[in-house]
Amino acid sequence: MQLAPSRRRARTALPTAVRLAAALALTPLLASTATAAPTATSAPASTVAVAAEPAVSAVLCNKHCDARDPAAATSDRVPVTATLYGRSIALHLSDNDVMGWASIDSGAAGDQTWLDRSFDGGRTWASGSKLGATATPAGRTGWRSQMYNVDDWNTGGIGALRACGKAGDRAEIACTGWARVDWNAGSRSKAAATALMMNYDRGSGKFAGWWTSATALTSLIDNIRISHMPSYRYAIANTYDKLRTAEGGDFTNSYLDDTGWWGLAWVAAYDLTGDRRYLDTARKDADHMAAYWTGKCGGGVQWATDKPYKNAITNELYIQLSAALHNRVAGDTTYLQRAKDGWAWFRASGMINSGNTVNDGLRDDCTNNGDTTWTYNQGVILAALAELNRATGDATLLTRARTLADASTTSAYLNPGSTLHEPYEPDGTGCTSDGDSFKGAYVRGLGLLNKALPDRPYSAYLDRQADTAYAKNRTSLDQYGPHWAGPLKDLGNGCQHSALDLMNAAEDS
């Protein structure tokens, strides 16, 4: 797809483990033949040839150690099932024990069943293949494996299990969809945050990509604030420490919009933790952006250090970040003036079209280029105006923001069938394209505006979007794809953090 000019560049590669597994990712997650709880879309279970015997897996010990007798389970929940040659294969979870086991029934002696365990959302499971493999004894029509841990508390691994089975000596196997215990999944947003953390590379400090790691981290920080679930708070300092010297240092690089996303992430981190280093870094990011305010087209921050193009997203981020810093830096006048100047220029630039939606940027002759009205360009400006209103008390800013929000929430182009849809919504990207992250920025901005308005006019819209995505675009692991109205296709960071942004905004509305 042709993305906005601000997005025309090669993307950062996925973490190595994810990259190597990319070819395997969608088969187990989206193309198996399992049946699951009706509220989630999950695997219809695949029938494939038996894989080679796996390497011996390390024994994990949390509350209990692997290979525990299911008779000792404190509960038994069956979230996903599969069938093969009349056999019923089921994954059983004991939520309190944080363990699971596999069973096969309605079969015959010699049938086999086992568990697979994954720590990256079902992309790979080489280190946890065929756990507890067992066969139905003579004289029985069904059997079960021992219990195995879902998570690895020693390394912080967020796990998932699936049950697999094989009918006697037939070659085919079938597996259920992936599922996990209900720990850190007590609400829609908590469950989405836990699924997002399955994409997190603790070693590199990234989710996937550069600026999309910033937006994912912001989604996570927002969730900690909204849900009061602190389990993944460690990712804030880990990401900061691992990436502070990357790119241009202090989360700057040649793309000024990227720097803006990171600056806002560190403002959110400061708000949550009170750690001054995050605020100091956000100031460096804002100052880096301000250095590229130029006289072309009468002002505005250019898209990149070596590209004079004036676009919407860079300047929307600049306004929001500058206003946010004024609201947090005692005695500031500099950031406030930058935010005011940024809005005055943006308002007069012509990027807001006659329909009150925002096009991508300006032509060389400084007129609206008429490019696609990407959703993130409709959302970040709402957050920027809400933040600037907080800084100035100017009620006209909220009035203008409300006009823009009314236009985008009622746009048939952006909401076909009443569900938010990105123009040229991508498929086949593994949710790593820029566009996969755009809707998250939109609903985050809309949610911030909604909270700033006493009548909360967009709560119903946000609730409707969240209900639709939850019902039509979710796996049994609470992973989400790009199409909130369905069908469920790709899975990955951009789609997942966008869904988390949506659940956050709906719960906070």
Automatic annotation (TrEMBL):
Keyword Phosphoprotein attached: no
Source species, domain of life: Bacteria
Signal recorded as keyword: yes
Any Pfam family hit: Glyco_hydro_76
GO MF entries: hydrolase activity
Signal peptide limits: 1-36
Keyword field: Hydrolase, Signal
Residue intervals passing through the bilayer: none
Protein name as it appears in the record: Glycoside hydrolase family 76 protein
